[in-house]
Amino acid sequence: MYLILKKKERFFIFKPLSPKALNHSIITLGASFIKLAQVLATRADFFSAEYLEELKSLHDKLPPMSEAEFEHVYTQTFNHVSFKRFEKIPIASASIGQVHVAYFEGQKLAVKLRRFGIQAQVRSDIAIISFFNRLFRPLFSHYTKNSIEAVIIEFSKMILQEVNMTTELHNLQKFSQTYPNSGIRFPTPLVELCSEDALVMSFEEGFRFDDKEQLLKEKIDFREIIAKLIHFYTEQMLLKGYFHADPHPGNLLVTPQGELVLLDFGMVKTIPNQTRIAIIELIKAAHERDYELYISASKRLGTIAYEAPVAELSLLSERMFDIFGNENLSSENMQKLAFEVLNSTKDLPFKLPQEAIYILRVSAIIEGLGTTYIENFNGIKDILPILQENIPKALGAQEGILEILIKEFKSIPLTIHDMKSSLKQISDGELKVELSLNQLEWLKKEIKSTLKPFVFGCLLIAGSLFTLLYDPSQKEVALVLFSLGVARIIF
After folding, report:
1. What is the pLDDT, as a whole number, of residue 411?
2. Does residue 102 contact residue 199 with C-beta atoms inside 8 Å?
3. C-alpha distances in angstroms, 363 versus 19, 268, 281?
4. Percent of the chain with pLDDT over 70
5. What φ, ψ does residue 107 adopt, rounded to 5°?
6. Which residues contact 136 (CB under 8 A, 6 or more apart)?
7. Domain residue limits, the chain
8. Rounded to whole angstroms, how far apart are CA atoms 400 and 343?
9. How far apart are CA 162 and CA 480, in angstroms?
10. What is the pLDDT of residues 190-205, one digit of tens each?
11. Rg of the chain in Å (alpha carbons)
12. What distance in Å separates the CA atoms of residue 375 and residue 299, rounded to the nearest whole number?
């Protein structure tokens, strides 16, 4: 309803909720809606700045399970385990689970317990969200429909994985194996104590990333911490294509020694290779301010539709980069100006593919963390040079020049063979051309919009004929239907 009403002050008797009222309603609705709101908290095309600020606060400050619910989950999960001590009051309570401190065989542990009945609740919530999406779908534009559909599909898939603690255990194990020398610390799981209802791991000490007062006391270098985080996410998103998709302040700890600790592996994503290459090209184009390449890479990433006007979008990109490249602007003013520019783009064909949802979310969170600690922190200016250093490595240029030349020389016979095959296909008239998914989607939309008036007009004409056959006295009604059908087809 908010998305339908956001351009108006009211719609009949309905008014959009205020940002705080919307936040309160989401918390009342529970886990699935909180998770969905966290995903949407990066969508400047869906929500204005004041709504986005409220949505970003939905993280780990939620009421814990009742005592009866806790006892049920604990007994079901650990009826054969004898902890030396298990603290019943959680130290953190989120939408899917809550974290308790426990002691087992002389080791201090963090135990993440799945909320009582959360799996059934999540399945019901997905059904409700999908129902309302189908109900309101006809009211949105083609690209808004696709964006909302992508958000719901990706969200549904992720939250069903997240409510199973075994999935998080596997994510944590794989993450530790993939990034053993990252300089970032991860918890160590006690696999024998884990189950679908609980993840048991080493207790990691540290201060929350947003505990600015404590970090100042410890004299921790913020720039070094932010640089380390950016380098780590560069490796995840550009080099390995396997990344932690939920780095909010509650999931990032900083030790007194300045070491980063990453928690909560419920949201871990793999980036397809073609998406990873598109992101690399975006970064390269942004760094070099090559706006046409930037638009071309955005089209390959899928965030801009195939038929979008390159010249108009290049001008828009230039305006945005001028805003973010201006060192005299505060972060607040940058955001304000950026929102004003984005407001003028509502009719342009932007969309959001599933793969881009969490990439944008991570980028927005890291930008927010930088702004918290570094005055006038500038994502474009401060992050892009660091990413630029990693582009050759991301494209696979780890070898020396000699190794690259040898590899290219070995591929020459294959290239000649491919050229001969292509020439033979051309001469035999058998050459095939494949359309990209973006081109196919555009064709589908164009065909649908072209055929729609013809189909509707034909239905009206058929209705007029049916009226005459059913009741010959209704000539006037039949004539009106026939005229409307013909008019619809012609105009």
Report:
1. 65
2. no
3. 23, 15, 16
4. 71
5. -115, 135
6. 1, 3, 4
7. 2-58+133-159, 65-116+164-203, 207-398, 403-429, 437-490
8. 47
9. 57
10. 999 999 999 999 999 9
11. 27
12. 33
**Letter for the amino acid at 339?**
F
Output the CA torsion sign for 305, 309, 312, 317. Answer: positive
Please determine, for residue 4, whether its predicted confidence score (pLDDT) is greater than 60.
Answer: no
**Tokens encoding 486:** 């013909």
Query: φ and ψ at 475, to 5 degrees?
Result: -65, -40
Structure tokens at 40: 């949407």
Which residue is it, tokens 């619910």?
69
> Tell me: domain 65-116+164-203, CATH 3.30.200, correct?
yes
Query: Is the Cβ–Cβ distance between 186 and 180 less than 8 Å?
Result: no
Residue 71's pLDDT is: 94
CA angle 461, 466, 467 (to 5 degrees): 95
- Cα 354 to Cα 151: distance, rounded to the nearest angstrom: 7
Tokens of 441: 């989607």
